[in-house]
Amino acid sequence: MRKFSLDALARELLRRAADSPNGRAAETVYGGHEHVLRQTVIALTAGNRLAEHHSPGEATLFVLRGRVRLGAGEVRWDGMHGDLLVIPPQRHTLDALEDSAVVLTVGKPQRESHADE
After folding, report:
1. pLDDT at residue 4 in the model
2. In DSSP terms, which residues pair with 72 in a beta bridge?
3. What is the band of 116 on the pLDDT scale with cuts at 50, 70, 90?
4. pLDDT value of position 66
5. 23 falls in which pLDDT band (50, 70, 90)?
6. How far apart are CA 54 and CA 56, in angstroms?
7. Distance, CA of 49 to CA of 42 (rounded, Å)
8. Model's pTM, two decimal places?
9. Quick check: 62 pLDDT over 90?
10. In this model, does residue 22 exceed pLDDT 80?
């Protein structure tokens, strides 16, 4: 079993984001390419954004700190500490309205096994 302090990680990533030229920092706390589930803490300083990008599949954002705005096309959803935002299955952006940290959770479809039976 592993245990993480997401609050401590959010503080550390916000410090790193403040020192970064693009105002962001991230660290995957669980999963990766070999797993179906991936959870990544992302920190953005106020006024910075993740530019429009494709949806990673089924995904949510849990706001640990600050306020963010998730946008897809003409639709916008604001989230603050404690909110869970469902990421739409289309291109979207994420803006930090304040210094913010979120947990991005992505569930990728499993590849079918083609092993002989």
Report:
1. 82
2. 75
3. very low
4. 98
5. very high
6. 6
7. 11
8. 0.88
9. yes
10. yes
- The one-letter amino acid code at 4 reads F
CA 30, 32, 36, 40 torsion-angle sign: positive
Domain range list for the chain:
6-107
Q: Which CATH number fits domain 6-107: 2.60.120.10, 3.30.450.20, 3.40.50.300, 2.40.30.10?
A: 2.60.120.10
Residue 7 sits at φ, ψ, to 5 deg, of: -65, -45
Measuring CA to CA, which residue among 60, 105, 106 is closest to residue 83? 60
DSSP per-residue string spanning 10-48? HHHHHHHHHHSTTSEEEEEEE--TTSSEEEEEEEE-TT-
